[in-house]
């Protein structure tokens, strides 16, 4: 069954059906028990009325026994002899005796004395009567009965047991009526439940169908600027629509960023390739005019740009940085030492020992190199690198005394292919990818990279990473 509405309606109907059947059975059991208790009470009352007469010394043949079909009575001696019975009783089972006609017996008590002050009165047992279920035929009508057995003793006679019955026909009829009513109403109620569930589910899922249609249209048109309709109800469907629109917005931004990245990369690659081709063509035609140094520089620029693009592609693909131990102190000292003699401005290093982090040594080295390259490019006379361990974090700062970064541009410089106006010349190096790569790597390592104004008025880049446990 592929329809959610149908499954919901079927499930709700099944649950209600089970609940109603269980409740109905419980009601029938309780009702039957209550009615049976009432029947037992009527039988007990009838038995005690006859037992009271026996206790008063009324002769068995003079006992006032109900001859109605709803109260068959037997009086049976301890030896099992029937000494009194309802006049219209024709057959009985489950009581004291299968006989229906009293037999002559010497166990007949004398009649009581009307002037007796009570000293010659017998007694009726105060114990709970014994109850049993049986059948009887009274005046041609057969039925099922509940019998109460009450012990009684006459003033001078032996003890007897009085059996009085009450019919179960009323209880059976009442239970049957309730059962039939339940059976008749159950299908109607289930149909109502199924219909209401179908309608409610259809109404609740209508926005989902709207979302599905819009998503199908977006897929067909490839127009990521479209959005699915949000019902504004604040429920799960509304939250689904909001989340779907957020996903579409993120996908649109990602696609736009990818498109812009491809366009910018193509633009950046075109310049060194065109320059290199021109130099090679000139060199082929006029070897004496070949600018070999310029060709090498363009080739290096092209190689660096390709490496940056490859690293960005790996980062965008979710490449994990790894969890190797990286001695950040040694990494900073080694990188700065390699630059001695080839940087236009000397780098002042103030690095604490034993600052270890987890991650990729190669990627963190790329971050440090990009920050130093940027500082060298913009510094006037000094570049400073400091590394400290503070509150469980490694804090690396690279500062220069250049013009600094305007506050409004401090986030924009981390975007890809972004160069500020004073750094747009390709001769100054860089395609606007170094800082973007540095921040991406920092985020992949669970850290942050920000820029603020340095003490000397230039830019101060701060990289913050989590320290390893023993380095804290």
Written account of the structure:
The protein has helices spanning 4-55, 169-221, 236-285, 292-316, 328-339, 361-378, 434-444; strands spanning 73-77, 82-85, 89-93, 123-124, 130-138, 141-153, 159-167, 324-327, 347-351, 356-359, 383-390, 393-400, 448-453, 459-466. By secondary structure, it is an alpha+beta fold. The chain has 3 domains: 4-112 and 120-175; 236-316, Signal transduction histidine kinase, dimerisation/phosphotransfer (DHp) domain (Helix Hairpins, Orthogonal Bundle), CATH 1.10.287.130; 324-471, 2-Layer Sandwich (Heat Shock Protein 90), CATH 3.30.565. The longest helix is centred in the middle third of the chain and has 53 residues, at 169-221. Residues 112-118 and 422-427 have low confidence and may be disordered.
List the helices and strands and how they pair.
Blueprint: H1 4-55, E1 73-77, E2 82-85, E3 89-93, E4 123-124, E5 130-138, E6 141-153, E7 159-167, H2 169-221, H3 236-285, H4 292-316, E8 324-327, H5 328-339, E9 347-351, E10 356-359, H6 361-378, E11 383-390, E12 393-400, H7 434-444, E13 448-453, E14 459-466
Parallel strand pairs: 9-11
Antiparallel strand pairs: 1-2, 1-7, 3-5, 4-6, 5-6, 6-7, 8-10, 11-12, 12-14, 13-14
Helix pairs in contact: 1-2, 3-4, 4-7, 5-6, 6-7
